[in-house]
């Protein structure tokens, strides 16, 4: 490397660059709003001195730092702008997620309300049919309800005669969901009420209602958790 001797300083490394002259370079920026990262350089007049019989050329190169300052300022503004944009994006994203959560909660609440109202209406109408209608109608509603319970257990009458169907139910479910002959007695009362002028007495209706109610409860107790939900929410048989 090259070294030069400076009075009062001594020898030191020095890098000679091409393009110097004995004219001072004007380093004044063309505009005050320059935003480039180019550093301006000013070079002093090259001087020739005689020292210890050796001609030494001395040059000084300084950096004004104008471009560097502008670059730093520009980077700072860009960083601040980026941070603000990121914060805005996070806020928009958070608001969007919160909106969807609110919608989901409202949807779940409305669905639960509709399920509750549907179940309440069905149970209310069933109670009205079992207790407030005429005695023959009450017996008919009880039989229809019992048939639905049997269909849930996959026991269908299809084309069987009622008496044959009663025997089939007794063989399949007797001693399991109800006591022997209970369904046969229930069927006899339903047949007399449907196919004759006979109108069941109140005590007969009460026994039939107890049978259907106990039958439904026994089905529910023997079901697993999912089946219980299906019985109560979807079918509303219980």
Structure commentary:
There is one protein chain. With 238 residues, this protein is mostly helical. The chain contains six helices and six strands, in the order ββββββαααααα. The chain has helices at residues 66-131, 135-152, 162-173, 182-195, 202-221, 225-234, and strands at residues 3-6, 10-13, 41-43, 47-51, 54-58, 61-63. A two-stranded antiparallel sheet has the order 1-2. A two-stranded antiparallel ribbon has the order 3-6. Strands 4-5 form a two-stranded antiparallel ribbon. A hairpin with a 2-residue loop joins β4 (47-51) and β5 (54-58). α1 crosses α2 (135-152) and α4 (182-195) crosses α5 (202-221). It is rod-shaped, with a radius of gyration of 50 Å. It starts with a strand and ends with a helix.
How many extended strands? 6
Summarize model confidence as the mean pLDDT. 78
Order of helices and strands: EEEEEEHHHHHH
Q: Could you give the order of strands across the largest sheet?
A: 1-2
User: Approximately how much beta-strand content do the residues carry?
Assistant: 5-15%
Distance between the termini: 100 Å
Gyration radius from CA atoms, angstroms? 50 Å
Shape: rod-shaped
Largest sheet: 2 strands, antiparallel
**Count of alpha and pi helical runs:** 6
Portion in helices: 55-70%
Global structural class = mainly alpha
Poorly predicted tracts of residues: 32-73
